Amino acid sequence: MKRDLDRLMAERNIDALVVEGPDGLGSANPDFNYFVNGAALTGTVIKKRGEPAMLLHSPWEQLQAETTGLVLIPTSRWSLRDILNEIPDRFQAYVELRRRIFTDLDIGGRVGIYGTVRAGEHFALLTGLAQKLTGLEIVAEFEKDIISEARLTKEPEEVEIMRRVGRKTCAVVQAVVDFIRTGHADGDTLVDASGAAIAIGHVKELIRRELAAQGLEAPQGTIFAQGRDAGLPHATGDEAAPLILGQAIVFDIFPRELGGGYFHDMTRTFAIGYAPPQLQKIYDDVRGAFEHVVAELESGAPTKAYQDMTCKFFEARGHETIGSKYPIEEGYIHSLGHGIGLEIHEDFGFPSLQDRGELLRPGAVFTIEPGLYYPNKGIGVRIEDTYYCTPDGSFESLTPFPKDLVIPLKS
Amino acid sequence: MKRDLDRLMAERNIDALVVEGPDGLGSANPDFNYFVNGAALTGTVIKKRGEPAMLLHSPWEQLQAETTGLVLIPTSRWSLRDILNEIPDRFQAYVELRRRIFTDLDIGGRVGIYGTVRAGEHFALLTGLAQKLTGLEIVAEFEKDIISEARLTKEPEEVEIMRRVGRKTCAVVQAVVDFIRTGHADGDTLVDASGAAIAIGHVKELIRRELAAQGLEAPQGTIFAQGRDAGLPHATGDEAAPLILGQAIVFDIFPRELGGGYFHDMTRTFAIGYAPPQLQKIYDDVRGAFEHVVAELESGAPTKAYQDMTCKFFEARGHETIGSKYPIEEGYIHSLGHGIGLEIHEDFGFPSLQDRGELLRPGAVFTIEPGLYYPNKGIGVRIEDTYYCTPDGSFESLTPFPKDLVIPLKS
Fold it and tell me: Residues A238-254, buried b or exposed e (16+ Cβ, 10 A)?
């Protein structure tokens, strides 16, 4: 939570946080959005230890800046034109601009750098600045940096937003189920009233429309993958392919509210009309694993226990798992879930490779998503809900949607 | 254009380009999208001078990787699990993984870094790698880097896509005009058939729906700003405010096709029902400037000439401009336009502060957007089309939409 920032800065001996909010990257800047609440503006957030965060912003963006509640500092305090008159080399001029800002605002000591940036430009600027400003030490945290760490535990107000995004996402999934149920079987092909095949592309189009109607966006796409594609965890689905009865369809949808908001992540696996026994068995194993894990969730427990539990559950039912084989391409091949919030994957998870000692903590929001993949059998199954560990240590699904495999067609 | 990359690498003595395509940033990575054509995948693009570009990708993303036409290298060639067993410190393990990749692929010498990254993580990784890998020199280009430079001139196939995005964007603007024309005047307030005021929020909702229907997204929002807000170039519009007849409305829309595609950028200024004389005069000046500049466009000419021409045009009509006053908050306060493509603002423009010696070159795609801002009079006007400098040196507007100020209401 934001109130953890000062404690984390003290623990890591960081004097100031500098969060870049560059132009042109839209809302793909979760650290910056965390401070400005998704306001549409550029600028830089600077927070000194023990002091409220400041927003350096363009005077053109005064209105948006006022919505953030941050301490506002218009960048017109410094004249880039004057600096360019003195120092015609643009790189040196931008370093000098940054040096003046840091000096005037008394930013120095150990300074952590955050936000989403252009690789070369940022590397050049920071390296140049560190050479020019004595007393400045750039601290580049590799993982579990201060802001990521603060973001991992959510305030009740953040969870209220995430509940809303969950409900909206479920409404989109329901619209897709309703649409599929308007179809009829022609042999094993799903067709519309005119007898034309319904393709994955039609479903994707519906998903885009329904997302927009809910005020959601899916900046990283949506997975609607059938048959062999369902067996490849990241295949997004072949738009030209018609929907086929009795095939596994993995529908994984991970949208957020427009303008850099919070994500939801859910997956359902469907079979239209009927499920062949082999698919039904694999589905039952995945659903069994899901329910087994969820029943055992306990505040304070290590996440590794749940990854191990899932592997054990699947191995007892004859599936290979990443717990005992690596690399692995069939069976249970990934981790059980991940943190979620302003990013779809936050810096928290259930370890499939290396235990990082993570615990389920009150305030955590994360996915539970066991799956089994057999691309050569044309089968993949995954079931995923987003969960919240409440302040009192209980667990709440933010994904109120049933888990039925078969979508029955009207006869 | 992509075929310029090897020449630019030779001119700048760069041995390899490394383009990061990190997880979780969606499509906000124009350099990476340039190589993978917006395919939904993570990974890293590496291009050695004189050789085709390689894509290091997850085996999970084989299908998407195949669509790129790049040389494919699955990251399963290197085992992070093995490295973590040897080197439990995660930062050192990731540096070692990167060291092995660079060594195995023979990447060394002067290596340029590109793409959109997390500031701290990337800075740490690259600094660590440079310490460990002798013979590696990280080259961080500050502006006009090799990839930005190649991207500035578009291939005919890229322009064909940009024409399509232009037509789709115009269709969204037309839908908004048609919607406004369904309203009626109640005094100076625009109301619907039931007599309820039509608010900017209703228009914004329509814009979102129409964008989705066209397969477009607006990751940086849309400006629909009325009255005083129209006088602030980046104010996005107050959703609660009702539409008022006779007020300046700046409608600036800059969407792209879904999934990291090409942007379009256009602005129209509207007045519903009628335009008061003060607004009409300012509008005529902006439209006059627009047409004056466009008539003078010439392949090979310096962009500075057009910025100067615009300032002169406005000053002759009694407006203050950034050409003779800085900082400036009223009048003509910004530059005439900017390059556009996979980013809304590309590294090319008409200089308002410092001339960078840029020329209008065949293949360039850029905006022309003069404007006048008088927030204290409740007036702002901007007119913007996207232009293309063709291979034969002529200029084509990619924005086929009329430039009428007044949206007449049905009586």
Answer: beebbbbbebbbbbbbb
**CB contacts, 8 Å: A121 with chain B:** 140-143, 145
Give the C-alpha separation, A392 to B151, whole Å. Answer: 53
Whether the CB-CB separation of A69 and A77 falls below 8 Å is answered with no
Q: Which residues of B touch A60 (CB under 8 A)?
A: 232-234
* Residue B174 CB-half CA count within 13 A: 11
Contact status, residue A309 vs residue A228, Cβ threshold 8 Å: no
Extract the tokens encoding A31.
Answer: 């650290």
Three-state DSSP state, A182 = coil
Beta bridge pairs of residue A395: A389
The CA distance from B349 to B362, in Å, is 15
Does the interface ipTM go beyond 0.85? yes
**Residue B74 φ/ψ, nearest 5 degrees:** -70, 140
Q: Residue A258's closest CA among B225, B32, B212, B229?
A: B212
B286 neighbors B383 (Cβ within 8 angstroms): yes
Please say whether the beta carbons of B183 and B191 come within 8 A. yes
Q: B54-57 and A216-217: which strand pairing?
A: unpaired
0.80 surpassed by pTM: yes
Which long-range contacts does A300-304 make (Cβ < 8 Å, 24+ apart)?
A: A300/A359, A300/A360, A300/A361, A300/A393, A301/A359, A301/A360, A302/A355, A302/A357, A302/A358, A302/A359, A302/A360, A303/A336, A303/A348, A303/A349, A303/A350, A303/A351, A303/A358, A303/A359, A303/A360, A304/A350, A304/A351, A304/A355, A304/A358
Cα A154 to Cα A388: distance, rounded to the nearest angstrom: 9
- Residue A284 distance to chain B (closest CA, Å): 24
Looking at residue A79, the DSSP 8-state letter turns out to be: -
- Beta strand pairing call for A54-57 and A71-74: parallel
A353 vs B contacts (CB less than 8 Å): 80-81, 84
- Strand blocks (E) in A263-375: 266-272, 338-339, 346-349, 365-368, 371-374
Cα B266 from Cα B248, distance rounded (Å):
16
Q: Is the peptide bond before A327 cis (omega within 30 degrees of 0)?
A: yes
Asked whether the beta carbons of residue B119 and residue A121 sit closer than 8 angstroms, the reply is no
DSSP-derived secondary structure letter, A353: S
Query: Which of A18, A33, A63 is the best substitution to test chain B (most B C-beta atoms within 10 A)?
Result: A63
Q: Which of A59, A64, A115 faces B119 most closely, judged by CB atoms?
A: A115
Give pairs for B95-98: CB < 8 Å, separation 24+: B95/B125, B95/B128, B95/B129, B95/B132, B96/B132, B98/B125, B98/B129
Alpha-helical runs (H) found in B317-406: none
Tell me which residue of A127, A155, A104, A149 sits closest to A14, measured CA to CA: A149
pLDDT along chain B (411 residues), means of 10: 96 97 73 90 95 94 93 95 94 96 97 95 95 94 95 96 98 98 97 97 94 89 94 89 98 91 96 98 98 98 98 98 92 97 94 93 98 96 98 97 96 70
